[in-house]
Amino acid sequence: MIEFHDVQKYYGQFHALTDINLEIDKGETVVLIGPSGSGKSTLVRTVNGLESIQEGQLIVNNHDLSDPKTNLNVLRRDVGMVFQHFNLYANKSVLENIMLAPRIVSHVPEAENRERAMKLLTMVGLESKADNMPSQISGGQKQRVAIARSLAMRPKLLLFDEPTSALDPEMIDDVLQVIKTITSDSDMTSLIVTHEMGFAKEVANRVIFMDNGQIVEDDSSQSFFEHPQTERAQQFLSKIITH
Ligand SMILES: Nc1ncnc2c1ncn2[C@@H]1O[C@H](COP(=O)(O)OP(=O)(O)OP(=O)(O)O)[C@@H](O)[C@H]1O
Question: Domain end: 123, 138, 154, which one?
């Protein structure tokens, strides 16, 4: 599903990703953790071409992102992304936000599109908010709409970039529960950047620990949290609460 081979990413002179080698298979739920500035968001954003790479090879869903001729719009039809700041269309209702891409990109017939969007809204517990505008719902609800919207295109791969870090603490659990439900589907592959260690522990099959632009550990969730191998990971975990 995702293959990084000796990938290097620079922002100008700054080496943001160094020697990234990583394979993620269909159905895996992989959580990326590490200190601030370690390159987690950058890595996730290379997967759908929001950030380009300068060296190495990156294959996502059979598309070669190291090839400048690759059509990113085609790749992105199968790759959903949920951002920290929701990015809903402010002038469209909750339901319209979800229906837009299937209508425009995939030409899904209107009645079917509406029915699917309502099912997704029900799944995230927001069917009663279909006709509200984004400004009329809370941050946690906005994020749940953003998740429903990312699922509307029936992606094979979902990327989450700190989906709860802009939320008030009491909103976080609802969003994490929705993500947990989605990622338990064995057909869905997910790559999640999060600072929520309890959630990472609960949801991840696999944990990737990054530091200074490099992958320092890549292990099963249980093994990583119980027996981190490197001093850097041990130090990182000792500074945070992982209940
Ligand atoms: N557009 C950019 N231009 C220049 N440097 C950047 C850019 N985006 C990120 N960086 C730098 O690249 C490094 C990695 O950033 P990145 O956002 O990937 O880290 P992160 O691990 O996701 O951090 P955080 O947990 O704080 O979000 C940081 O040093 C950051 O300052």
Answer: 154
Q: Which atom of ligand 1 is nearest to the CA of 11?
A: 4
Query: pLDDT by residue for the chain (243 residues), tens digit each?
Result: 999 999 999 999 999 999 999 999 999 999 999 999 999 999 999 999 999 999 999 999 999 999 989 999 999 989 999 998 888 999 999 999 999 999 999 999 999 999 999 999 999 999 999 999 999 999 999 999 999 999 999 999 999 999 998 888 888 988 899 999 999 888 899 999 999 998 899 899 999 999 999 999 999 999 999 999 999 999 999 987 554
**Closest ligand 1 atom to Cα of 38:** 21
At a CB cut-off of 8 Å and minimum separation 6, what does 28 contact?
1, 189, 190, 205, 206
Domain limits for position 70 = 1-78+157-243
Closest atom of ligand 1 to CA, residue 210: 21
pTM score, whole prediction: 0.93
Q: How many structural domains is the chain composed of?
A: 2
**ipTM rounded to 2 decimals:** 0.97
20/111 same-domain check = no
Domain assignment present for residue 83? The answer is: no
How many angstroms separate the alpha carbon of residue 42 from the centre of ligand 1? Answer: 6
CATH number of the domain encompassing residue 55: 3.40.50.300
Same domain, 181 and 233: yes
Q: Residues 6 or more apart from 36 whose CB is under 8 A from it?
A: none
Q: What is the DSSP string of 104-146?
A: HTT---HHHHHHHHHHHHHHTT-GGGTTS-GGGS-HHHHHHHH
Ligand 1 contact via 39 beta carbon (within 6 Å): yes
